[in-house]
């Protein structure tokens, strides 16, 4: 599976079908290798008003419920040579511990 996109100016490409197939292949591979849990790295976020959120020892469970949740867009601007990928995802059934 491959996707080749040629941009001639500032353009947007929608890659829904490609990403849907990619996710289907990913889910199949995860199921074949019995990989359904992912250990998350520790994360510390600064919040407004001097707050802080610390996430530690995270495990993401049931990752095979990953699906696309909107249009996947790739935008390229020749003006500033920036490529932007918008990939909205969701997990239909996810458990965190």
Automatic annotation (TrEMBL):
It comes from the Eukaryota. This is Uncharacterized protein. It comes from Molorchus minor.
């Amino acid at each position: 599976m491959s996707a080749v996109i040629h941009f001639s100016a500032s353009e947007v490409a929608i890659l829904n079908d490609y990403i849907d197939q990619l996710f289907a292949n990913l889910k199949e591979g995860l199921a074949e290798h019995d990989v359904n849990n992912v250990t998350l790295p520790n994360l510390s976020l600064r919040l407004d008003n001097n707050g802080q959120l610390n996430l530690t020892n995270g495990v993401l469970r049931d990752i095979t419920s990953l699906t696309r949740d909107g249009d996947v867009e790739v935008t390229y601007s020749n003006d500033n040579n920036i490529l932007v990928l918008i990939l909205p995802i969701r997990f239909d059934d996810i458990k965190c511990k």
